[in-house]
């Protein structure tokens, strides 16, 4: 069976995943919940623009939404 | 001195209530911008029109104030573009503020070489006033004021219309009925039809104030300004020192109390400053919905403008799209009435303008969701975009204070002949033709001004076969559906009877080379184009664009039989 044709890379893609995770949590350090939500929103916008491809983003949105609704 | 168009009250001319019902080729209901444009368009193309309106006045209040380039080009074709463009305030710059800070500005200033600007702002009563004066100059256009439609009955070969006047009721007959009677369309209701969609739970206050202010002629839009916290405000300039201020009030606002000067004046002073000198011209509270009818054609009844579709005001897509409906409909009705096209051509009106309405509703809904976020997540992302937009160019593209009206391209329309040759640029079949400066007999003029009302073939001269093409173009000009020939030569290369592409912009915008030919519909939309002129191909494209091609053969035969006897008209 061939792999499904996917544009979103969900295979490991980071040289140092632990450093990334540390950075993500660190970015929220000392922020109020409200500031944290705003930071996340701005990160989504910045990274989405970097990716640019709506098909890739649509896949990512679908995975996250399906998990939330599961 | 300008006429006080809002103050005009038109006379009611009594009709003989007991005469046998008169038969009209076309009756248009509603003398707003869309009904007037439809009636003028038909009348100037030679179709007698009766225009009915239940009132005897033009627009009260400024209402639609932003008229887009394409609409101005249509008004040019209708013979009143110059007045509207001259009186209107031209503007190109829009500024977006978040809180007290400017987030960014944009410039709609189009490239040079177009007759009309991106937008002019002009009170609706001026537009209606100028259209009305144009209508009065047309002998085959009759307007009956204070004539309310109270019944519509569709028969196989005609529509009967009950009309109520101050003197009593009478019946008339029409081969075709155009309902341009607004968002609360009486014709729509009488036929048991609906316009469906989404209502937005928000209220807005429009205040037109007269003042000599130092604001430039720009569109200013505030999200969450210090003088009106948590809501949006829009400021726009109109002629006669009138400024439109549009305050978002929220759903809980009391629509009656908020119209009172003691509530309105403090809001305006908060924006302009305590010492500002101004007078209130007009105040209105509005809500809006994005909706449309499932079908714009119901047999012999055609719906246009707000009667057929509604949008939010953000983006100026209401009146502009309504005038574009008229532009699309008039020539098709004319060909059907003249017996030169089957009534299937009117299905293309419905299809093309339903598609345009969907496009307008989509833009309008997206802008409304950005301006008035309806969930916490939606507000969070809106605010995140606005924060980012100050320094990040990408986020400015996401700020949506209304995507301003642009004309629809009728992609996939059955009237288009799809490209067989390779072309670059935006002027694919279905697109509105682009303007360009041209020289006519050595005098500067505009390309679009040479087109419209009839099918037009634009041939770019300079090819070896020019002489043959000219002869074949002449033959096309004499066809039952005439094609107006337009031969465009490079600057300095023209022979008598040719236009010159004075700045080379026509060739650039049409991606044309010597020998290229475009076929434009009477509404100036491209329906076909070729790298080499071929009379047979032009005839085939003309047949297709008038629904006379083989796909419509059966409809044609059936239709011709059912065509009403126009001698009664």
> What is the overall silhouette of chain A?
globular
Residue windows where pLDDT falls under 50 for at least 5 positions of chain B = 554-569
**Residue share in β-strands of chain A:** under 5%
Q: Which structural class do the helices and strands of chain A define?
A: mainly alpha
Give the helix/strand layout:
The complex is a heterodimer of chains A (70) and B (569).
Chain A (H helix, E strand, L loop, with lengths): L16 H11 L5 H19 L2 H16 L1
Chain B lengths: L22 E7 L3 H12 L4 E4 L13 E3 H10 L2 H7 L1 E2 L2 E6 L2 E7 L11 E3 L2 H13 L4 E4 L3 E7 L4 E7 L2 E12 L6 H5 L4 E5 L4 E7 L8 E5 L8 E7 L3 E7 L12 H12 L6 E8 L2 E5 L3 E2 L2 E3 L5 E2 L7 H20 L6 H28 L4 H14 L3 H4 L40 E4 L2 E4 L8 E6 L5 H12 L5 E8 L8 E3 L3 H5 L7 E4 L5 E5 L4 H11 L7 H10 L7
Parallel strand pairs in B: 1-2, 1-11, 2-8, 5-14, 11-20, 24-25, 25-26
Antiparallel strand pairs in B: 3-7, 4-7, 5-6, 9-10, 10-11, 12-18, 13-16, 13-17, 14-15, 15-16, 18-21, 19-20, 22-23, 22-26, 24-27, 27-28
Helix pairs in contact in B: 1-4, 1-7, 2-3, 7-8
What does the model show?
- The complex is a heterodimer of chains A (70) and B (569).
- The mean pLDDT of chain A is 93.
- Chain A is an all-alpha fold.
- The two termini of chain A are 27 Å apart.
- In chain A, 66% of the residues lie in helices and 0% in strands.
- Chain B contains 14 helices and 28 strands.
- In chain B, the strands form 5 sheets. In chain B, strands 1, 2, 8, 9, 10, 11, 19 and 20 form an 8-stranded mixed beta sheet that branches.
- Classes of the chains: A mainly alpha (70), B alpha+beta (569).
- Chains A and B meet through α2 of A and α9 of B.
């Amino acid at each position: 069976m061939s792999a499904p044709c996917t544009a979103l890379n969900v295979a490991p893609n980071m040289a140092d995943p632990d450093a990334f995770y540390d950075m993500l949590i660190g970015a929220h350090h000392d922020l109020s919940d409200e500031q944290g939500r705003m930071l996340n929103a701005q990160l989504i916008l910045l990274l989405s623009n970097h990716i640019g491809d709506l098909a890739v983003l649509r896949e990512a949105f679908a995975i996250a939404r399906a998990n939330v609704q599961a | 001195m300008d006429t006080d168009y809002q103050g005009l009250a038109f006379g009611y001319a009594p009709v003989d209530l007991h005469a046998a019902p008169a038969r009209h080729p076309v009756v248009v209901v509603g003398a707003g911008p869309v009904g007037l444009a439809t009636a003028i368009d038909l009348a100037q193309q030679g179709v007698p029109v009766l225009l009915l309106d239940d009132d005897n006045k033009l627009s009260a209040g400024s209402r639609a104030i932003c008229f887009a380039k394409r609409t101005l080009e249509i008004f040019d074709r209708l013979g009143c573009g110059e007045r509207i463009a001259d009186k209107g305030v031209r503007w190109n710059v829009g500024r977006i503020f978040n809180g007290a800070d400017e987030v960014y500005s944009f410039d709609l200033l189009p490239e040079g070489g177009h007759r009309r600007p991106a937008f002019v702002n002009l009170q609706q009563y001026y537009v209606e006033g100028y259209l009305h004066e144009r209508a009065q100059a047309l002998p085959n256009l009759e307007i009956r004021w204070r004539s309310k439609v109270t019944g519509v009955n569709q028969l196989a070969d005609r529509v009967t219309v009950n009309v109520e006047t101050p003197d009593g009721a009478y019946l008339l007959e029409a081969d075709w009925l155009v309902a341009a009677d607004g968002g609360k369309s009486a014709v729509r209701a009488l036929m048991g039809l609906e316009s469906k969609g989404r209502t937005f739970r928000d209220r807005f206050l429009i205040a037109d104030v007269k003042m000599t202010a130092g604001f430039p002629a720009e569109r200013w839009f505030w999200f969450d300004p210090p003088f009106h916290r948590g809501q949006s405000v829009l400021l726009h300039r109109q002629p006669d020192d009138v400024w439109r201020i549009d305050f978002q009030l929220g759903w809980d606002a009391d629509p009656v109390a908020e119209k009172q000067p003691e509530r309105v004046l403090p809001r305006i002073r908060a924006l302009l400053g305590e010492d500002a000198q101004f007078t209130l011209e007009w105040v209105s509270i509005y809500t809006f919905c994005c909706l449309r009818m499932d079908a714009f054609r119901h047999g012999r009844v055609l719906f246009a403008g707000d009667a057929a579709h509604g949008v939010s005001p953000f983006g100026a897509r209401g009146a502009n799209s309504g005038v574009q409906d008229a532009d699309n409909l008039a020539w098709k009705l004319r060909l059907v009435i003249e017996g030169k096209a089957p009534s299937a051509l009117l299905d293309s009106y419905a299809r093309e303008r339903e598609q345009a309405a969907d496009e307008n509703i989509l833009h309008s809904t997206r802008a409304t969701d950005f301006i008035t976020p309806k969930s916490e997540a939606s507000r969070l992302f809106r605010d995140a975009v606005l924060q980012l937009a100050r320094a990040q160019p990408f986020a400015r593209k996401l700020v949506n204070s209304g995507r301003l009206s642009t004309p629809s391209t009728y992609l996939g329309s059955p009237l288009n002949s799809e490209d067989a040759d390779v072309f670059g640029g935006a002027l694919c079949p279905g697109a509105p033709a682009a303007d360009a400066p041209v020289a006519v007999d050595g005098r500067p003029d505009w390309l679009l001004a040479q087109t419209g009302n009839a099918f037009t073939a634009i041939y770019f001269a300079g090819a070896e076969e020019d002489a043959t093409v000219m002869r074949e173009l002449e033959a096309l000009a004499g066809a039952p559906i005439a094609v107006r020939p337009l031969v465009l030569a490079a600057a300095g290369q023209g022979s008598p009877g040719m236009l010159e592409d004075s700045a080379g912009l026509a060739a650039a915008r049409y991606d044309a080379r010597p020998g290229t030919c475009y076929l434009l519909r009477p509404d100036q939309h491209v329906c076909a184009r070729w790298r080499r002129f071929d009379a047979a191909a032009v005839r085939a494209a003309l047949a297709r664009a008038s629904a006379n091609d083989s796909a419509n053969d059966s409809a044609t035969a059936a239709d011709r039989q059912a065509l009403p006897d126009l001698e009664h008209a």
